[in-house]
Every structure is written in structure tokens, then in C-alpha cells.
Amino acid sequence: MPTLQDSYLKNGLSLSEVQKRLLQFGLNEIATKKDYTILKIFIGQFTSFLVIVLAIAGAISIGISEYVDGIAIFAIIIINAIIGFIQEYKAENAVKALKKMVVQTVIVIRDGQEKKIPIEHLVPGDLVLLFEGDKVPADLEIIESSSLKVDESILTGESIPAHKSPNTKNQESKESKLFKGTIVVAGKTKSKVVATGGNTEFGKIVNLVSQQEKGKSPLSIQMDNLGKKLGIITLILVIILFIIGYIQKISVINIFMTSVALGVSAIPEGLPIIVTLTLAIGMQILAKKKAIVRKMNSIETLGATTVICSDKTGTLTLNEMTVKKLAVNFKEKNIAGIGYQWEEKFKTTSAEERKLLEICENCNNSFVDKTIIGDPTEIALKILTRKSDHLKKYESIDENVFTSERKMMSTLHKTGKTKEIFAKGAFEEIVKRCKYILINGKVKKITQNDKTKFNKIAESYANEALRVLGFAYKQYKETFNEKDLIFVGLIGMIDPPRKTVKSSIEIAHKAGIKVKIITGDNPLTAKAIGTKIGIKETKIITGEQIDKLSDKELLKAIYVTSIFARTTPQHKYRIVDMLKKAGEVVAVTGDGVNDAPALKHADVGIAMGIKGTEATKEVADIVLKDDNFTTIVNTVREGRRIYENIMSFIKYLLSVNFQDIVTVGFLTIMGYPLPLLSLQILWINIATDALPALALGTTEAREDIMEDNPHPKREKILNKFFWLILVTVIIKMIGNLLVYFYGLRIDETTGSNTALLSEPSHARTLTFTGIVIFELMFAFVCTGDKNFSFRKAFSNKKLWGAVLISLIMQIAVIYLPIMQKIFKTTALDFKEWSLVILTSMTAFAIPYITKLFQKIFKH
């Protein structure tokens, strides 16, 4: 009579019991230390060297009774801090929200049903099913296992996988325990949850996780280094300017304040934050396009990708296997239906068919009932048995698990009074282990002629893009092994290519990206699928051939081959390694636990979100929610857009930030009054830097962006924009001098004393406004990183909004009495505005002049 324990081991917990335990034990999650707080982010805005210097300048102003200037400087510091805080807070929240999108799931038995649930909902007492590649979701006690090996290096540091099995001695043993965070590298298990969340062993050493430093992306590091270089250059120029001003007998306080303001303005200290925010927004966009970015720096690398090494099954195909043909007794049978439906039935006509169906049903780890869970190949085999009139389930005793090296699996079952071993796998792997064959209900020795006949059937299936599996069995005697098997037959199943893959591969090729198929499947099947998706490959290299090639020979072969078949994960790793050493930027897809080394070694590792193991997702840079190659190409496109936009606002900030120093320095050397006051310089930094730069990060991708070749992985930014920066500084300085001297003549005519800094002047107001308007127009010039076009430049609505806000702010500074008093400006008339606009419109000529300079000096 079944006991309560027997019922529990079969059915698991009831849903009502699960709810009680959730209330008692809480969610299966570990509370970690928050790596940022609102207060910490806000305080961080005031810790930079430049802000501290600016604060000192403000304090000095108040100390010498220049209260308006001092208060205004502190107000600008606070405004700048608020802008920086908003940007950084948005970036942090965007990344935090994306982390929640990668949800680890686990299969449990509840109410007698296998269900897939988020690991957070696990409770002590749950029965969990784990397979190769799964990440252990809680601390577990093994009830049943088969060939189980677990990587426990995260806890023990030991790199060799540990063998695990149920406890048969009724005493404490680590061999029968699985710990949260470890990874199943081989075998399968049914285990009971004994601890969740903070009560797990991993939870007890949670500091190992919470103390991890948050890494910066390569581009952010590049921005930091660029900022340091610009800082040194700027400080040297500011010191020189201060010395010249002192020699020219300009007030020490005034020249100090102006020098500090110029230093703050010239160094784009907010650039790393804007880069981070743009990347974070890009991550959100990619998430909507079914690509979860786990590591921010991978977005930058995407735009530079030159080779995509892709799996075939599920990535290029639909990953919905359907058995279409069955062959036993050298006779073939077509199977009706498609997908995971079994309404269309067929009758078995021989002992061979019935034995093959028994192997399909029992040498199988999928679950097909009200819910369908498991590997698509195994699901298709169980769907086949449900279409037939022969569905036999036997008690499972043991299993030799499928591995990519063996390309087969076998199981031991109790079949009535005897025991039988069932095996399935790649046709050539199965048939070479067979000593006998089942023909017309009788077992006889298999001949080479028998193998040749079945081999021809297998080849014909493969040429039709069918995946071929062989099936065999034998009576169990003393040991569970895979020798001297009895061959039964084979089946051909189809996994059709995704409809969008062919066009996506064409786009990738136009974008200068080479696509390589690396599959464990039959060469003929791989070739047939390749032909259907537009890879017309005459030469195919197999894993066996790869083993015989030297590194030099393999690299040569890689460049003339697009399809690699019957490969192992070790072959994939070697191909990726060769490509990287050759200077290629490689993106790699994978799903199995053994794909993890190749994904980790690649420049961009892409894991499958549906069929991918947790081990693969753990090391991946990107997880695809739909396992679709088209999503990879769309992600590359988005990566290029993001990178191009980052380059847009970098060239904008670099080009405009030096013109103030050059203008002020030149006029100071020439002995003229300061053309800009410290507050005006700081205002330019706020009014024209942050908003347009952020808006440039939202520009839509060019229509032809996927017709460019990949950009170099690590471009030298100053070299890239040297001519543009030089031309911009020259053009704008000429414009600044024009409006300054025009304003100076008006001041002399009206009798204004421009030597006194306390007096508003047309010269300063015109120069000040001219710089702002020029920079706002120049923002449109920086839209896109390739060729300037007026249509493209003016299509960014967010940039229009940013420019409009900045313009309103500038008009307020010129015309509002209180702002005139603070910034020492004077109202401009129509003629003066006309001059400002005309000189500022030279911004639109800069791309053409830059091209001319580049052509001249190139020759």
C-alpha cells in the first residue's frame, strides 16, 4: 500500500502547502547590499576636483563682497549637480530594471505535474528536476540521480566536477547535497529543497557577491582617460591664460574666476555619465527587441563585430522538431502532422516499429502531457509515440547521459521480468556500436551491406534537411554498457529554418560581417539548411577534420568555410580562438553547458534564453529571449546606432569645449577686455552641453547603417575628430571676434566702459550669445557619425526640444532684468541678433570644410 512518503515523492507539494511555506520562509532570494543610494549619487556630484575648485571660487567671491557672483556660482553648482544626479540615477535604475529581466526558472513537481517556475518561488520541500547545464537554485538533498556531476568551484574553488548521488548510508554526507549557485555539468537528478534564500550555504557567504565591484565599460574607461588628458591640456592653457591676464594687469580675482570657469567649461566632466546613460537606454531598447544585455560593454563591441559564429538548431531554425519519416526493415514510413500536436494517428505494422517507439518514449527526459517541457528533439520523439497505437512506458533504472562528445544517450529499464538497455543518438554513432540488427522480428548479425542500406536512407533524409537519429537496444546482462547493441532503425525529423533568417544573413553580409554555422549536426543536414538560408557552401569541415589541422591550416580553412558540422564545444572554442587571434571581433551563440567556454572567450557571448542552460546564460553578455538569429542582427544594428550616437555627442562636446579658451586667450593676449565673464562661461556649460548631448544619444539609426563595415573596436577618439575640432575652433573663433569687435564699437559709441567688469556690455553679450547659438546649431551638425545631411540633422525631435529649452534659457538671461543683473548682459536688437545668427550658421559649413581639409592634407 502506497505511503504518504511515496505519494509525496510522486506528486510533490500541493499548491496550498506551497503558499503556506512561502509565507513561512519567504522568497528564495538573497538580500544584497545596495551598491548605490540616492544620497550617495547626489553627494557624488560634488566630489570632482573641478566642482571643488568652483566652490572655492564662489567662496572667494562672497569673501570679497561679490555676493551676486558668489551666490550665482553656487546656484550653478547645484543646477549642474541636479542634472548629473538625474542622469546617473536614470542610468542606475535602467541597469537595475534590466537585471530583473533575466529570470532563472526551474522545473518542479507540484500536485503531480511538472511545472516551470521562477526560482524565487521555490520553497523548502519542493521536488526539483535538474539536468545538464542547470544552475542549482537552492540547497537540495538528492533523492534520485543519474551520472550526476556538479561544478562546485564557486563554493570550494575546486575546478574538478564533484560526483553526486543519493545518501544510502543514512548519515550526513556532502555527496548527497547540492548547493545553491553550483552548476550541473553532467547527468540529471530529482532532489528535495532543504534551504532557500539566506539560509543556503551560498546565502551565508553572500559577501562574496555583495562586495563585487561594479565594472566600467571600456568606452567609459576610455572617456575617463580622455577626460584626464583634456584636463591636463586645459589646466596648462588656463595657467597660461592666468599669467597673461596678470601681466595685462587684469584684476587677479577676475582673471582667477574666469580661468576657473574656463577650466570647468572645457573639460567634459559629465561625459562618462552621459555615455553610461546612453548605453543604459540602449539596453532597454534592446530588451524590447528580445535581447537582454547583461554586460553593458557588449553594446559597444556589437558595433565592431566582424564574425558571428552561430548554432543551427533553434537559432537559425524554429527549434520545433517534428518527426517526418521513420525507417525500419529497410522500409520507410511518412509521418503526418507538424509541431507539438498528436491528433493525426498512425498504426504500427511491425515489431521493429514498436521497439523503435519504445526507445523513443523511454530513452527520453522530456515531459509531454498537459504541459510540454524538455529538449525539442526529445519532445518530438514523444509526440511520435502519442501519434501511434503503441505507447509503452517502462520503469527507469539508470542512464548514460547524452554529451556533445558521445553524441548519444542510453537508459536502463525494467521491461517486465527482464531489463533492457535503450539507446538513441547520431546515426553514425549508434550504428558503429551495433553488432546485431532487428529484421522481420528476428535478431541477426549486422552486415556491412545492412549498414550501407541504412546509410543511404540516412543520407537521403539529411539531403532533405532532416535531422537523423539512430535507435538501438539490447538485453541487460551484468553491466550497463553500450557495446554490441541491436540496431532497430532510424527516424528523420525536421526543424525548418526561420522565415526571417535568410534576409538577416544577407544584411549581415552587407554589413561586412561573416556568418559561420557551427553545429553538432550531420554535414548533409547542415548543408541543406545552409542552402535554404542563403549560405551556398560547397565545402564543409567536420570536427574530425578540424582535429587533424594545425592552427595555421585551420585558420586558412576558417576563412574559406562557413559551415562546420559534427563539432564539439572544444572545436567551437578553437575556431573562436583562431578568429580572435587573427584580429576578428567575434560574437558566438550557444546553449549547452559545454558552450560556456566559447561564449566567455568570445568578444560577445550570446546565450539562448529559451533552450539555453543557466550555465550558458551565466557567462553570456547577451541573452536572446526568442533564440532567433534575426534578433542577433537587429542587436548589431542597435549596437551600431548606440555607438554612432555616442561618437556624435563626443565630437560635439570636444569640438565646442575648446573654443571659449581660444577666444578668451587670444583677446587677453592682444590686450582687450575679457570677452566673457566667469558666470557667462559656466552658463554656456550648463545651457548648451548636457541637454543637446543627451538628445544626440537618441538619434535614430541611419537607413544604411548596416551597409557600413564594422568600426574598429578601440578607436582613437582625438585622432578620429582632430580635423573637425580644429576647423570648428577656427571657424567659431573668427565668428566670435566679429561679434566681439562689433559689440566693442557699439560700447565705445554709447560710452560704456568695457574695462570695468561690473558694467554690462554689448561686446560680452554678443560674444556670449553667439557662442550659445553657434553651439545649438552645431548640435544638429553632429547628428550621425558618417555623412552630414540636413534632412537627417533636423529629424531628431528630442534634439529640437533640447535646443528650444536652451534657447529660451539664453533669451531669459539676456532680457529678464534679474538675469541681466546676475550675468551682466544687455538686451540685443534685431540687427545684433541677425549678426549672431549669421555667424552661427557657419556651423553648417564645418562638415564640408573639414572634408576639404582632410582631402588637402591627405595628399
Give the overall silhouette: elongated
Spans of at least 5 consecutive residues whose pLDDT stays below 50 are: 207-217, 753-758
What is the C-alpha radius of gyration, as a whole number of Å?
35 Å
Mean of all residue-level pLDDT scores: 82
Give the N-terminus to C-terminus distance in angstroms.
94 Å
Helix % is 40-55%
Q: What can be said about the biggest beta sheet?
A: 9 strands, mixed
Give a brief description.
By secondary structure, the protein is of the alpha+beta class. The protein has 34 helices and 26 strands.
How would you characterize the overall build of this protein?
The protein has 859 residues and is of the alpha+beta class. The chain has 4 domains: 4-29 and 103-210, Calcium-transporting ATPase, cytoplasmic transduction domain A (Distorted Sandwich); 233-286 and 643-700 and 716-858, Calcium-transporting ATPase, transmembrane domain; 291-317 and 497-627, HAD superfamily/HAD-like (Rossmann fold); 322-494, Calcium-transporting ATPase, cytoplasmic domain N, CATH 3.40.1110.10. It is 49% helix and 17% strand. The strands form 4 sheets. Strands 10, 11, 14, 15, 16, 17, 18, 19 and 20 form a 9-stranded mixed β-sheet that branches. The protein has an 8-stranded mixed β-sheet with strand order 8-26-25-24-9-21-23-22, sandwiched between helices. Strands 1, 2, 3, 4, 5, 6 and 7 form a 7-stranded antiparallel β-sheet that branches. β1 (105-110) and β2 (113-118) form a beta hairpin. α28 (722-750) runs antiparallel to α29 and α31 packs across α32. The protein is elongated. It starts with a helix and ends with a helix. The relative contact order is 0.09.
